[in-house]
């Protein structure tokens, strides 16, 4: 992949994260973190509503080759679960939590979004 394509993909990914942030804020969520990192784990967005922490994976794609739920691999689920555990243990209080997927498909001018709340159960609990 050329440098130009990589920069465009990074910009499109940030665009999708911005749209996801707007989506959650418009529904009354507080954005706690964006691009939270710990031990080589990254969680795109951590939002909060009431006593619920929401760990959001943002997917940006130009085509409809795969649905949002299918695009999140088992490896990514395990990584998010480990990150969520670390994050929750660092917080004061006892929180409920869930994992959402926010998918943006299209381009900068014309796109659709899909939000899957409570998209998966922790693979560490299976």
Secondary structure layout:
Elements: H1 3-26, E1 30-38, E2 41-49, E3 52-61, H2 68-71, H3 74-89, E4 96-106, E5 111-116
Parallel strand pairs: 3-4
Antiparallel strand pairs: 1-2, 2-3, 4-5
What does this structure look like?
- With about 130 residues, this protein is α+β, with helices and mostly antiparallel strands.
- The chain has one domain (about 5-125): Trna Endonuclease, Chain: A, domain 1 (3-Layer(aba) Sandwich), CATH 3.40.1350.
- The protein is built from three helices and five strands; from the N terminus they run αβββααββ.
- The chain has helices at about 5-25, 70, 75-90; strands at about 30-40, 40-50, 50-60, 95-105, 110-115.
- β1 and β2 (about 40-50) form a beta hairpin.
- The mean pLDDT is about 90.
- Could you give the count of β-strands? 5
Report the total helices.
Answer: 3
Overall spatial form: globular
Percent of residues in beta strands: 35-45%
Mean of residue pLDDT values: 90
Spatial gap, N to C terminus: 37 Å
Work out the helicity level.
Answer: 25-40%
CATH topology: Trna Endonuclease, Chain: A, domain 1
Give the strand order, joined by hyphens, for the main sheet: 1-2-3-4-5
SSE series: HEEEHHEE
Classify the secondary structure makeup into a structural class: alpha+beta
Question: Taking Cα atoms only, what radius of gyration do you get, to the nearest Å?
Answer: 15 Å
Give the uncertain stretches in residue-range form.
Answer: none
Query: What is the makeup of the main sheet?
Result: 5 strands, mixed
Total separate domains: 1
CATH class bucket:
Alpha Beta
Q: Please state the second-level CATH architecture.
A: 3-Layer(aba) Sandwich
């Amino acid at each position: 992949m050329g440098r130009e394509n990589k920069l465009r993909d990074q910009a499109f990914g940030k665009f999708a994260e911005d749209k996801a942030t707007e989506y959650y804020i418009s529904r009354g969520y507080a954005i706690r973190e964006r691009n939270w990192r710990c031990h080589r784990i990254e969680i795109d967005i951590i939002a909060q509503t009431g006593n619920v922490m929401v760990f959001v994976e943002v997917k940006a794609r130009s085509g409809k080759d795969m649905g949002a739920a299918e695009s999140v691999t088992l490896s990514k689920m395990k990584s998010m679960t480990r990150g969520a555990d670390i994050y929750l243990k660092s917080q004061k209080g006892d929180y409920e939590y869930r994992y959402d997927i926010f998918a943006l498909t299209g381009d900068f001018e014309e796109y659709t979004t899909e939000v899957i709340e409570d998209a998966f159960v922790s693979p560490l609990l299976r």
